[in-house]
Specification:
single chain, 328 residues, alpha/beta, 4-stranded antiparallel beta sheet, 15 helices, 13 strands, disordered C terminus
């Protein structure tokens, strides 16, 4: 869907100035959630901004569905894309409803359709339309403002959603909740999402593929499992955190993937959809050897035993090559 070919970018004019991007090529397929990650100055935000022409490459091309975006009207291109930034950027003197409806209005949607879409999105983000639609941005918490920012980016039903460190300024609890919202929306909608973050745990949690940039070049592209288990070099291993790779690998698998059949036992319960990393935390907290697992309806869904968690061969057998957990 998005094809970035041999893109380079230099901001300074000196002949020996370092390149923000240096001959970068990347293909992003329809429906992927691709996370761009790297240290400050690695080129990740520059690469993201090239997709909607907020930055222009010095050399190379960016195409979308086979069309060179440099040959498309900027307004038309950007109306096909949602864009979310860390500072949200809501219009302060507009209501929440008007903020969300701005792109549909630019697309010429009738008022009734806009109102329906605004209501749908507020409901999707667990914000009551009657309560929050008439409010102004300053009347919302930081997490609520960020929800509205993502809702606004989705309002025109864009083909691509671009997110530039959208949750970096939020506290950990709100950040985790919004990560879950983005993951759920991606799975439900099949939208193509390209996201920039500096947080490796966020990248591992959300990405179907991760692109690690280093000094304007791609150091490695792969699934979360591939970056953790097969780092391209020592620098990649250090970046993803070689000291706690085992714990990070547990975050890629669901507790239900190691469930044993059997009746409920005395002790704590955990959602089968929770990660094995969360299971380890709960086991340690309660000092127990097994957890009861619950399905989405709250019904018993088996038992997770600590012994299975730390059986390397058993856990490895439940992770496919694409980094997704299978179910026993």
């Amino acid at each position: 869907m998005i094809d970035i070919k041999n893109v380079s970018k230099t901001y300074a004019h000196a002949a020996d100035a370092p390149r923000a991007l240096d001959d970068v090529s990347l293909q992003i397929g329809r429906g992927e959630l691709v996370v761009l990650i790297g240290a400050s100055g690695s080129g990740k935000s520059t690469l993201l901004k090239m997709i909607n022409r907020m930055e222009q490459p010095d050399t190379g091309t960016v195409t979308m569905d086979g069309q060179n975006i440099a040959e498309q009207p900027v307004r038309d291109l950007r109306l096909r894309m949602g864009y979310v930034i860390q500072s949200v950027g809501l219009f302060p003197h507009w209501t929440v409803a008007r903020n969300i409806g701005v792109v549909p209005a630019m697309l010429g949607w009738p008022p009734e359709r806009i109102a329906t879409r605004v209501s749908e999105l507020l409901t999707l983000f667990d914000l009551d339309p009657a309560t929050y639609g008439p409010r102004y941005p300053h009347q919302l918490s930081g997490g609520q403002q960020q929800r509205v920012g993502v809702a606004r980016a989705l309002a025109g039903d864009p083909e691509v959603l671009l997110m530039d460190e959208p949750f970096g300024a939020l506290d950990p609890l709100i950040r985790a909740a919004l990560q879950d919202e983005v993951k759920r929306i991606h799975q439900a909608s099949g939208k193509t999402i390209v996201m920039v973050t500096h947080d490796i745990d966020e990248a591992l949690r959300l990405g179907t593929r991760i692109v690690l940039l280093e000094q304007g070049r791609i150091a490695q592209v792969g699934t979360p499992l591939a970056l953790l288990s097969q780092p391209a070099n020592a620098r990649v291993a250090d970046f993803v955190g070689r000291s706690d790779v085992g714990i990070k690998l547990l975050s890629l698998q669901s507790a239900g993937s190691l469930a044993r059949a059997g009746s409920a036992q005395t002790g704590p319960s955990l959602a089968a959809s929770a990660t094995l990393r969360e299971a380890v935390s709960l086991l340690a907290l309660h000092g127990c050897s097994a957890l009861n697992l619950l399905d989405d309806a709250g019904a018993h869904a088996g038992v997770l035993h600590a012994a299975d968690l730390f059986n390397r061969s058993a856990t490895a057998a439940h992770v496919r090559a694409d980094g997704k957990a299978t179910h026993a």
